[in-house]
Design brief:
- This protein has about 400 residues and is α/β, with parallel strands linked by helices.
- It folds into two domains: about 120 residues, Rossmann fold; about 240 residues, Rossmann fold (3-Layer(aba) Sandwich), CATH 3.40.50.
- It has 15 helices and 13 strands.
- The chain is elongated.
Length: about 400
């Protein structure tokens, strides 16, 4: 990018040493020099570009500054420069839609090239209501017992749905395990839904406020998740949760709920607003009995006539041993299972440790193939929802 390409552009530089760029790559731009605190709430109305000197502050303060950027609904393009940049800091920054990193030593030409790439990218689309509103589809995933793999499957289902969407339509994954949800950790993301704000925002919550709670995971997948808080279920009222789900379903083509096993004041209404309720069970007798009981309870208490679908997770080829077969599992369930997901511990563990869907790190895993078959089948079926949470 030539200096004339930044003529008249507003550039926020964080770190006094970067002022020297005014005589080179930033010539002609309107410069503002700020501290890390300036990053709080910064948006497209404040600057066309942000350049940050990571060496000007201690690592902890720098991490807080980057965290502030992830909370901004639509931050400008961001370029981070410095020497010996911490991996965690770089990884956090690159989760933003338009961000780049330059490790020292770098030349003015390097900076110009990086700026050109950032400025050429289109700004991310703001969340907007889907056409017709009610055309969105919402699926809930709930584990019959703890550790059944419901969170992993919710992530894989959401990721599969991204692959079949128009690029302008996003999928929203919502972690409703408010007290101890692990979705953000599995994805290597930072949860940004602030429960205190959500608790007081039921009447004011709209698409723009929802956007402030979003953590972008990929170009098409957004995450709504909060930091672990043992008081979360007492903190956030029923109306706030249901309003959050209503706005999400108005704003996204697909919404996937990672539901808590235990019932809360909003659980049945949330489930009743879903097109599909997927109960995840392991192939152990206690888990199968729990899945049958949970499915019966949901079907009875929702009162919509929709039956939850049971998924059998971690299926393995069995030659010897006491694990039930698929047919034996269905006898224990007293109903047919919707499908089975193969066991692939190595792929699941690797993806959790690396952060991201299994399909990203182990695309040939049996889990990925089984989830694809499941999603293909469910997508092809007509909507089953009879009511929407409100």
């Amino acid at each position: 990018m030539s200096s004339s390409s930044l003529q008249g552009r507003r550039v926020l530089i964080i770190g006094p040493s970067l002022q020297a760029l005014a005589q080179g790559p930033l010539e002609g731009a309107h410069l503002e020099v700020g501290s890390l605190e300036r990053l709080l709430g910064v948006g497209a109305a404040d600057a066309d570009l942000i350049i940050i000197d990571a060496d000007a502050w201690a690592a902890q303060a720098m991490a807080a500054g980057v965290q502030a950027l992830t909370l901004c609904p639509s931050p400008p393009p961001i370029l981070l420069v410095g020497a010996h940049l911490p991996t965690s800091l770089v990884r956090s920054l690159l989760r933003l839609e338009r961000a780049d990193v330059l490790d020292a030593p770098y030349t003015p030409e390097h900076i110009s090239t990086a700026i050109a790439g950032l400025m050429a990218q289109q700004a991310p689309l703001a969340i907007a209501p889907t056409q017709g509103g009610s055309t969105s589809r919402c699926w809930a995933v709930v584990g019959a017992v703890g550790g059944s793999g419901a969170t992993t499957l919710a992530i894989e289902i959401a990721n599969q749905l991204c692959d079949r969407q128009d690029p302008n339509n996003r999928v929203c994954l919502i972690d409703l395990n408010l007290a101890d949800g692990a979705t953000a950790a599995y994805l290597g993301s930072s949860p940004t839904m602030r429960l205190h704000e959500l608790a007081s925002a039921a009447e004011r919550l709209d698409a723009s406020m929802l956007h402030a709670f979003i953590t972008p995971v990929t170009k098409q997948l957004d995450l709504l998740a909060a930091s672990r808080d043992p008081t979360a279920f007492d903190l956030v009222p029923r109306d706030a949760i249901l309003r959050l789900l209503e706005i999400a379903c108005e704003s996204y083509a697909w919404v996937i709920l990672d539901m808590p096993r235990h019932r809360h004041s909003w659980s049945l209404e949330a489930l009743a607003g879903c097109d599909e309720v997927l109960v995840v069970s392991e192939l152990t007798v206690p888990a199968l009995l729990a899945a049958r009981s949970l499915s019966d309870e949901i079907e009875r208490d929702m009162g919509t006539g929709n039956k939850p679908r049971i998924l059998l997770n971690r299926l393995a080829a069995r030659m010897f041993g006491p694990a039930p077969s698929m047919a034996e599992a269905e006898r224990a369930l007293q109903r047919k299972a919707e499908g089975g997901i193969s066991s692939d511990w190595e792929a699941a563990a690797a993806s959790v440790n690396l952060g991201g869907p299994i399909a990203t790190h182990r695309p040939k895993s049996k889990i990925v193939k089984d989830v694809q078959v499941l999603v293909d089948r469910l997508v092809a079926e007509p909507l089953r929802r009879t009511t929407r949470a409100a």
